[in-house]
Amino acid sequence: MARPPRVHPPTVRKCAAREYAMPPSQDPLYAGLGQAVRIGTELLAALIVGGGIGWVVDTYLFGSNPWGLVVGLGLGAAAGVRNAYRAAQRWQG
Predict the structure, then answer these.
(1) Which domain holds residue 36?
(2) CA dihedral sign of residues 75, 80, 85, 87
(3) In whole angstroms, what is the distance from residue 31 CA to residue 38 CA?
(4) Backbone angle region of 7, left / alpha / beta, with phi > 0 → left and psi within -120 to 50 → alpha
(5) How far apart are CA 35 and CA 53, in angstroms?
(6) Residue 64 falls inside a structural domain
(7) Distance between CA 38 and CA 47 in Å, rounded?
(8) What's the rounded Cα separation, in Å, for the pair 85 and 39?
(9) How far apart are CA 3 and CA 21, in angstroms?
(10) Cα–Cα dist 43/27, whole Å
(11) Rounded to the nearest 5°, which phi and psi values hold at 5?
(12) What is the rounded distance in angstroms from the CA atom of residue 73 to the CA atom of residue 48?
């Protein structure tokens, strides 16, 4: 007579799976990729916000095309670089 397969409780299966699978947050490839995506997002978001504010200033407030947009993009780029630098400093320790 054949024995039925042995079934482990869920906690035992989870512990065994943890031994073999490295969480993505601890994998160096994914950690570096996450940092790069965050820095890129910081830069892009700051440029979009700065450009949007500059466009609004040009279109609705002063009508000084394209100087509000140029200044807004410049300030957005500066803010994005500053945010990216601060994020990189947090990862360094």
Answers:
(1) 31-92
(2) positive
(3) 11
(4) beta
(5) 27
(6) yes
(7) 14
(8) 8
(9) 30
(10) 25
(11) -65, 145
(12) 8
pLDDT digits (tens, 9 = 90+) for 7-62: 666 665 565 555 555 555 567 777 788 888 989 999 999 999 999 999 999 999 88
In a domain? residue 19: no
Residue 20 falls inside a structural domain: no
Q: How far apart are CA 2 and CA 9, in angstroms?
A: 21
Distance of CA 34 to the CA centre of its chain: 6
DSSP category for residue 7 = -
Cα–Cα distance for residue pair 64/27, rounded to 1 Å: 50
Number of domains into which the chain is organized: 1
pTM of the model: 0.65
Are 54 and 69 in contact by the 8 Å Cβ rule? The answer is yes
The answer to whether residue 58 is domain-embedded is yes
Length of the chain, in residues = 93
Residue found under tokens 């969480």: 23
